[in-house]
Specification:
The complex is a heterodimer.
Chain A (H helix, E strand, L loop, with lengths): L2 H4 L11 H9 L28 H12 L6 E5 L4 H5 L6 E3 L5 H15 L6 E7 H7 L1 H9 L5 E6 L34 H8 L3 E5 L4 H17 L3 E6 L13 H10 L5 E4 L1 H22 L1
Parallel strand pairs in A: 1-2, 1-3, 3-4, 4-6, 5-6
Antiparallel strand pairs in A: 5-7
Helix pairs in contact in A: 3-9, 5-7, 6-7
Chain B lengths: L4 E2 L2 H7 L2 E7 H10 L5 E4 L6 H13 L4 E4 L3 H13 L4 E5 L1 H6 L1 H4 L2 H4 L4 E6 L24 E4 L3 H15 L8 E6 L7 E7 L3 E2 L33 H29 L3 E4 L5 E5 L2 H15 L4 E6 L1 E3 L3 H7 L5 E6 L5 H9 L6 E6 L8 H11 L11
Parallel strand pairs in B: 1-10, 3-4, 3-5, 5-6, 6-8, 7-8, 12-13, 12-15, 15-16
Antiparallel strand pairs in B: 2-9, 7-14, 11-13
Classes of the chains: A alpha/beta, B alpha/beta.
Bound molecules: thiamine diphosphate (TPP), iron/sulfur cluster and magnesium ion.
Chain lengths: 292, 389
């Protein structure tokens, strides 16, 4: 059904909330928006209670703008900062218990596949480093081992942001955080390598310095998950509160990390590569025709 | 696999001719699942549950169940069940003791998420030292979560409660998970006679749009646009929303009662209602209680039985009514804390008449003699104890 359920029945426009009417008229349902035009269309997420200047919040904004199929997408989140914005987007959102995302998504995606074998229903997990790599580690890994067809995006702020700044497995070694009073004693977990070994068919590591690239990676991950299997994006989304990064230096920090341990990295299987090339070629053609 | 035709729940549960089979409790669970038009089953091994989910796996292999997998562990299994049910599927899983507790955070959030599903619980010792035997203390953990909890005495109950469980859980005015608990081994691994309708019939498929809370499938107008999600914030609205939502969960739990009457003949079974001394019991303890009642009757003693089939909703009115002229109430149980005795005491005005026990734990059997001793004591009958070496 997708788009049909979003559209307002004739005659009802004036009874619907303004916000909703704007979403349908000036939003991204049924079309593809350009992330470079953020701010010029009605976005799927607007108000949210994340900290001012939070880079994770920015990443989430770009994420929604990048969705290839927002009218048929379900987002899953968990305890952590991201869910504060995810729960207020104009896309169905599921919140269960802390760290359960990849198990819930497995059940959900299978149910949708049973019920709608001929329809595209994108399922996307967005969760923190603690959620995916600590408490939910087993479920994250096993969803990949099983080859579940959905996308996992880790918004890695290298800390338990939502509970006030404790060490996570993704915190860099040596960093002093709550519950690591003498500094973290072991290395940052190599999530990207784990994802690759565990069976993801598309894996990317990204420091969000370039919105076009974020959007491209997100779209690729979602497309590949539809056909081939699990996909994973490891995104650096700094926590300016717990790491004391002034808002105006957030981008600078992201660029610095991009030069060090968050170099852009993308890997995919051959069949995914072929498939994506085909999709992107068609998209380009379509765009050209629209210009004409 | 025979072609299964869809029939109305009322027909399948109440009217269809039945045939008698001699099967284990695990088989009874699977036979119910076979007729329940289940979309997905998610399994994780633990004794004494495993055999049930092996048999359900066979049903998947034969085509009765559309999807099935072995989960990573119980927390993953119970979370995936939530995902599948929110996606509109009809689902089944089962576990025992430690597995139940491992999955508990997910399980106790099902009612709040309004997840209609059937969960089989085959009891097993929890806590240390280890035993795999059927102590049923784990049921007490399920009583305060909003789940509908049925306790099966035998293989027939397992079959009836499970099949009816799917129907009750999906009623629009209920829409809650239904637990079908029974004692591990005593029921799951022992055979009993079970009357079953033919396997060429099944329940209608789940209709996820007939629901108080719609599925998350991007298919239903109006769009679920959560522009404000107060539950996600720490403010007065979030307390209020949680509070009213949970009130509704518990109201829904009570509304399950009428369906328990309709499909299971009521939440209690009373034997010899004019008795002076009553045994109140659930699950396997009810089977032993039934035997004790029979012995007592043979000896001409005024003893009755109240079997409690539904622990949630708890049959407050029915238990109070059945015990209104009782002089003593004996509550035999398979656990150390006596959760059923506490329930019974809490619903009658004269809780002093309740005798705590007899109780066995660690998974021991519950000899009828233990119950008889309490009966004699209650009636002031002195019996000489014979010790047979
Ligand atoms: C079972 C359980 N354990 C602990 C918590 C507390 N908790 C909530 S959010 C959180 C940390 C979140 O960290 P992360 O996943 O990295 O997300 P972030 O807030 O950093 O984005 C914790 C520990 C919980 N909600 N549930
Ligand atoms: S605590 Fe950090 S990650 Fe969380 S919202 Fe604030 S800045 Fe963002
Ligand atoms: Mg974090």
């Amino acid at each position: 059904m997708g788009l049909e359920y979003v559209r307002i029945s004739p005659g009802f426009e004036r009874y619907m909330p303004r916000d909703y009417v704007d979403l349908v008229k000036f939003g991204q349902f049924g079309k593809q928006v350009d992330v470079m035009q953020l701010g010029q269309f009605k976005e799927l997420v607007e108000e949210h209670p994340m900290c001012a200047g939070c880079y994770m919040a920015y990443f989430i904004r770009v994420f929604y703008a990048a969705l290839p199929n927002p009218e048929d997408t379900i987002v899953l989140g968990t305890a952590g900062c991201a869910r504060l914005a995810l729960s207020q987007a104009a896309v169905p959102f599921i919140y269960g218990n802390y760290g359960d995302t990849n198990a819930v998504a497995s059940g959900l995606k299978r149910a949708l596949t049973i019920r709608f074998p001929d329809k595209v229903k994108d399922v996307v997990v967005i969760a923190g480093d603690g959620g995916l790599m600590d408490i939910g580690f087993g479920m994250t890994m096993h969803s990949w081992f099983r080859g579940e067809k959905f996308t996992t995006i880790m918004v890695d702020n290298e800390v338990y942001g939502n509970t006030g700044g404790q060490e996570s497995g993704m915190s860099p070694k040596g960093v002093q955080l709550k519950m690591a009073p003498l500094g973290k004693k072991f290395d940052k977990i190599n999530a990207v390598e784990l994802a690759q070994v565990a069976g993801c068919v598309y894996v990317a590591r990204i420091s969000p310095t370039n919105p076009k690239r974020i959007a491209k990676v997100i779209r690729r991950a979602i497309y590949a998950a539809r056909e081939f299997g699990p996909t994973f994006i490891h995104a650096y989304t700094s926590c300016n509160i717990e790491y004391s990064i002034p808002t105006r230096e957030v981008l600078k920090d992201a660029r610095e990390r991009e030069k060090k341990d968050f170099k852009f990295y993308e890997w995919m299987t051959d069949e995914v590569k072929e498939y994506l090339e085909e999709i992107e070629r068609k998209e380009k053609e379509k765009a050209k025709q629209e210009v004409k | 696999m025979p072609d299964q035709r869809v029939v109305e729940p009322e027909y399948l549960l109440l009217e269809a001719p039945r045939e008698k089979k001699f099967i284990t409790g695990s088989q009874a669970f699977a036979e119910a699942v076979k007729r329940a038009n289940v979309d997905i089953a998610i399994a994780y091994p633990i004794t004494p549950q495993s055999e049930t989910m092996h048999l359900v796996g066979d049903l998947y292999a034969q085509g009765y169940v559309k999807d099935y997998y072995r989960a990573e562990e119980e927390y993953g299994a119970m979370s995936a069940i939530a995902g599948a049910v929110r996606g509109g599927a009809r689902a089944f899983t089962a576990t025992s003791g430690p597995g139940l507790l491992r999955g508990l955070e997910a399980i106790v959030s099902w009612p709040g998420h309004r997840i209609p599903v059937v969960l089989g619980v085959m009891t097993r010792v929890v806590n240390a030292p280890l035993s795999i035997q059927p102590d049923n203390i784990e049921i007490s953990y399920l009583l305060n979560a909003g789940l509908v909890v049925l306790h099966a005495e035998n293989q027939q109950d397992v079959f009836d409660f499970t099949l009816a469980g799917f129907v009750i859980s999906e009623k629009v005015d209920v829409y809650l998970p239904v637990v079908v608990a029974t004692e591990g081994f005593f029921v799951t691994h022992a055979k009993g006679y079970v009357q079953m309708p033919s396997e060429d019939m099944k329940l209608p498929p789940r209709d996820p749009y007939k629901a108080p809370v719609p599925p998350t499938d991007c298919e239903i107008p109006p769009a679920r646009i959560q522009r404000d999600a107060p539950v996600q914030k720490s403010n007065f609205m979030s307390y209020l929303i949680h509070a009213v939502w949970q009130q509704e969960v518990w109201s829904a739990n009570r509304r399950a009662m009428k369906w328990i009457y309709k499909y299971l003949g009521g939440p209690v079974e009373v034997v010899n209602p004019d008795a002076e001394v009553f045994i109140v019991a659930s699950g396997c303890a009810a089977a032993q209680g039934r035997e004790a009642q029979r012995y007592a009757e043979q000896e001409g003693l005024p003893v009755g039985l109240v079997k409690v089939k539904s622990l949630r909703p708890f049959p407050e009115k029915e238990v109070r009514e059945a015990l209104k002229n009782a002089k003593a109430v004996i509550v035999p149980e398979h656990n150390i804390v006596g959760w059923l005795a506490k329930e019974v005491k809490s619903v009658i005005p004269n809780s002093g008449i309740v005798i705590d026990g007899p109780r066995v734990y660690g998974g021991m059997t519950l000899p009828v003699e233990l119950i008889m001793e309490e009966i004699y004591k209650a009636l002031g009958i002195k019996k000489e104890k014979k010790t047979v070496v």
